[in-house]
Design a protein that fits this description.
The structure is a homodimer of 525-residue chains. Chain A is α+β, with helices and mostly antiparallel strands and 525 residues long. Chain A has 13 helices and 17 strands.
């Protein structure tokens, strides 16, 4: 992992309270669903599933949970039957002699069975171990209803009794998971495509999105729960095709609009708890996507107030982006303002970044037209310069591919983003995609559904629909085959156990940016 | 350890709500004292102290606590300056970039420095590991004031940061320990004895008692916090010489009186939280001490109401005890109703148990005289039978010692309890004690201040006062030398790291039954 935490403690922030007030005014209601575990399960070896493990129903039955009592070293694993986000509570009592010692429990929440096989004490990833969904609880007096105050993302809940005393045992009844979201599955009717696998993928994609739609579009409900711009763009697109909660998109736009750097940069993410706070991380592509999200939102809603409130934020960011464009139209990003593109840093991202800027600039120009911005021509000129550089310098017509970086590397991301930027004619786009398929498929070294989304979308844009559908089925379908209830943050089909964090126990198995099949299907099939 | 948990699930209980109501009516007020840590310390090797470790003041100063920030793998140890019982709270904030991961803390409470060197994960004792005073806390949002809800017994509080993230560090301010007791040190004026070491022991003994005096006389504030009859007897004696809170003794007597077995047995201890509940553990000597505590209480208070309410409880227990006395006056206890005497099970307890019964019966007979019980003569007859058996069968005049068990074992406990039972004339008592000193001192294989108390008291009763004072100074003084702020549950001078539980991390270092020097001093010096 070449990931580097950004620490920018010298940012001058512009906090616009008027814009933030509008974000607060659009706070969604949170719906609650009482989820009762469907069954008690045990972990079993299963080489077909993620991490080589799966679950099977235990001989202990959920309907006779109170018949079993637990002492030191015993445990019960509840299966909610699906992935949920929320809070856990359970009745606990003691059975036997009087309770002559506290009860010590370790309660572990897992999105996938393989998390239950990891030993948190041996965690050696680079991301904070604080993310491991595991609580140590001492209970001095029984009976109680244990209400854990924190929120978890989980399908499985393991309650391990670390100790009682030899004189009594613990008894558990009424486990309940109180699930939370700002949308409801019942509000969606998914279109049937006639392809059962695609239909199934879409159900899971929609559930993934639902679990991430809380008071904001969280990028993932298990860990940081922040509003990330790159994730937001894709969540908003999938949301329009499903829950169509445009208020939450509006709120998200105001949150970013209200918390920018004075120099115009929009942060990669913002915190909303305990207070509104911009993160000091900046990712170039995420920043310029602000205008894209605004444009997509306006296309759907014709909400003039939001557009006029936030246009200047998008414009200032676009102007800031141009600082890194030379007189030839070549984008060169400094180390402290990288483009994300994908978790992998094993390929050159220069050309892909140029593609994201062209794509975003086009969307921005649409807004400038709507608003009759007198600077309109300037942006058109910049677009031409950036596009020309891409067409005449970055595109290698002999290799039918865009090259990237000083060594002229040809990689998938460059082709994909230049297709999405739509700078070539459709015939050339098709040739580029075909060449990409011929020379670089099967895809390897790409670790995120986020980047796979863009590959599939580029293929659809270029009209290579059959191959696009095939790739979507292979990629998201393989997650389903491996046991996914919701789609994951990271997945390399050739290396299913890959985690960007060095240890899958902190990986996110319900991640907003992987919810896009439902958008792709709706738009292109 | 030959300790065997008793599980008696077939006891028919007689719950007397009238008596229990009187226990509730005498609930004490709890006083609170705000304790600010005196300093930050580090653990250092120190072969002169318990467990081979001690503390020294850290270069980090408590007055500049906020100048230091903490990330993964760092810790701070607060020293309260003395042993207290209560609850901990602290302000926590993050310093640096926005808080992009939860804060995970391990917070350990220790009565003595050596507890901080134990690895709780490797605990291998037979007592529940749930007693280890260690919390794992995840905090999602900072700043907060962390108020840990549980009560701890501690002088040292270690806050270990298990993880933050690389982007920020934790900052701690305003650590406060809110100490609790039903009595106040200011209410006591300890007599000066002219012996500085004894005076110092008495201060520590009084603090030990204070920390155990909560809503009941707890046997120890770190662990089970129950009201044990054997501990109560000694606590009450020390209490009369110090805080003289006779209401708490009354409450304790009613608690036992209200929860007895239908057959008359009084349990070794009762629970008071969350509800009043008798434990299913029965210890013969503890049971018969009920009448002793009542007698001692009546001597001090002349409280006729309590005496008349509870006399029958004492009587029924005494009658039950006689089931195990044969026609010769020999007490033989069944395995399920053992006498405790001491934690050690490496000596025969038969004769010592007979001593506890004679001692208790004498106290009971005093009450029967006061109340003009018409069965008085029966108890006198039983006393004579038990005493005669001890004098004519158990006492070996050639060896100048009481023998115990089938093999005629001579041990300290037998001599001590027969002296306390006062069945021989004073000249014989002195000879017995002198022989015991000559042949069995230095004491070995006795693990509790509880048994040492009885050795010292027996020596005082026999008039061997100089040697009694010397033993008290050697035993309690050695705990002081090893670093005691309060006196311990278990201490074998010849084996200072001995724990009755197989691991000192769950040992109790503030234990009611070790508070008696202040009583012994007051009564005998």
């Amino acid at each position: 992992m070449a990931f580097k935490f950004q620490i920018n403690d010298d940012v001058d922030w512009k906090i616009d309270e008027n814009l933030l007030q509008k974000a607060k005014d659009n706070m969604p209601e949170i719906y609650h669903e009482t989820v009762i575990p469907e069954r008690i399960v045990e972990i079993v070896e299963d080489t077909d599933k993620l991490g080589g493990v799966s679950v099977k129903e235990s001989s202990s039955k959920i309907y006779s949970l109170s018949d079993t009592t637990y002492n030191r070293g015993t445990e019960v694993i509840f299966d909610l039957g699906d992935h949920y986000v929320g809070r856990f509570s359970i009745d606990i009592d003691s059975v036997g002699s009087p309770m002559d010692a506290p009860l010590t429990l370790k309660i572990t929440f897992a999105e996938v069975p393989s998390e239950l096989t990891s030993d948190s004490a041996k965690y050696d990833g680079w991301l904070s171990s604080s993310w491991i969904q595991e609580e140590l609880v001492h209970i001095d007096e029984l009976p109680i209803r244990l209400n854990l105050p924190r929120r978890y993302a989980a399908r499985f809940i393991r309650v391990s009794v670390l100790d009682t005393s030899p004189k009594w045992r613990a008894k558990f009844t009424n486990p309940v998971f109180n699930a939370e979201s700002s949308v409801k599955m019942n509000d969606v009717t998914l279109k049937e495509t006639g392809n059962v696998q695609i239909d199934n993928i879409n159900v899971i994609a929609t559930k993934t999105l639902l679990d991430c739609m809380q008071e904001i579009f969280e990028d993932e409900p298990k860990r940081d729960r922040r509003l990330w711009l790159g994730d937001l763009r894709l969540q908003a697109l999938a949301n329009y095709e499903t829950f169509n909660n445009t208020t939450l998109v509006k709120r998200s736009l105001y949150l970013f609009g209200g918390m920018t750097a004075k120099d115009g940069r929009i942060p990669a993410n913002v915190f909303t708890k305990p207070n509104l706070l911009p993160d000091d991380t900046f990712l170039f592509d995420y920043s310029v996507f602000f205008g894209v999200v605004l444009s997509d939102y306006f296309d759907r809603t014709s909400d003039w107030e939001t557009l006029t409130d936030l246009y200047d934020v998008a414009k200032k960011q676009m102007d800031y982006a141009f600082k890194f464009v030379d007189e030839n139209g070549c984008l060169s990003l400094p180390e402290e303002y990288p483009a994300f593109i994908d978790w992998s840093n094993d390929f050159d991202k220069t050309t892909a970044a140029q593609g994201t800027l062209i794509f975003s600039l086009k969307k921005f120009i649409q807004l400038s037209v709507v608003l009759h911005d007198q600077d309109y021509q300037y942006y058109e000129d910049m677009l031409k310069k950036l596009s020309d550089y891409a067409i005449y310098t970055l595109y290698d017509s002999e290799k039918v591919a865009f090259i990237s970086g000083e060594d002229g590397e040809i990689n998938i991301a460059s082709q994909v983003w230049m297709i999405i930027a739509e700078i070539m004619d459709q015939a050339t786009n098709q040739k580029i995609i075909q060449e990409m398929i011929d020379t670089q498929f099967p895809v390897s070294g790409i670790a995120t559904p986020y980047m796979y989304h863009h590959i599939v979308e580029a293929m659809f844009i270029a009209g290579i629909s059959e191959e696009a559908i095939k790739l979507m089925q292979e990629y998201w379908g393989k997650m389903v085959d491996l046991g996914a209830d919701t789609f994951w943050e990271a997945f390399e089909p050739e290396n299913p156990d890959y985690s960007p964090y060095g240890d899958p126990i902190v990986s996110s198995f319900c991640h907003a940016w992987s919810c896009t099949p439902v958008y792709l299907t709706s738009k292109y099939i």
